[in-house]
Design goal:
CATH architecture of the largest domain: Orthogonal Bundle
Radius of gyration: 18 Å
CATH class of the largest domain: Mainly Alpha
Strand content: under 5%
Shape: globular
Helix content: over 70%
Number of strands: 0
CATH topology of the largest domain: Hypothetical Protein Yqey, Chain: A, domain1
Order of helices and strands: HHHHHHH
Number of domains: 2
Largest sheet: none
CATH superfamily of the largest domain: Uncharacterised protein YqeY/AIM41, N-terminal domain
Structural class: mainly alpha
Distance between the termini: 40 Å
């Protein structure tokens, strides 16, 4: 379970006295706790599922990539480096994404299975991709591939 891995990651970072990892793990766990509380308010007593936690981690990575871009534009390379180090820590807890080739094969397979012909079928194709490959695929890139195939 991902929650257990996150807790263990914090403990091992503390033992190793890795300040960047400790601070990043604490940020992750605080965000997870906030989102768990919000989920409980929606009637889900168990909090976030592993897939939802992976989504949260991916959004944290996207935020950091944006921060890196802004820090580099602002001439703050030390802050950009800090954000890059945080990305490395967060990525430890995510499964590897599919390669471009594997993603293209999966998109072609699903398009063939659903007999999709036009852009109107894109929602059906994307829904099936999200169902089959949660956390394994960059769906923004997959959407571009689907659009390219159906155009």
């Amino acid at each position: 379970m991902l929650r257990t891995r996150l807790d263990e990651g914090l403990k091992s970072a503390m033992r190793a006295r890795d300040e960047r990892a400790v601070s990043t793990m604490r940020l992750i766990l605080a965000a997870l706790k906030d989102r768990d509380i919000a989920e409980r308010g929606k009637g889900n007593p168990d909090g976030l599922s592993d897939d939802q936690i992976q989504g949260m981690l991916r959004s944290m990575i996207k935020q950091r990539h944006e921060s890196i871009r802004l820090y580099e534009q602002g001439g703050r390379p030390e802050l950009a480096q800090q954000e890059a180090e945080e990305i490395v820590v967060i990525e430890q807890f995510l499964p590897a994404l599919m390669s471009e080739e594997a993603m293209a094969d999966a998109v072609a397979q699903v398009i063939g299975e659903t007999d999709a012909k036009t852009l109107k079928d894109m929602g059906r194709v994307m829904g099936l991709l999200k169902e089959r490959y949660p956390g394994q695929m960059d769906f923004a890139k997959a959407g571009a591939l689907v659009k390219q195939h159906l155009s």
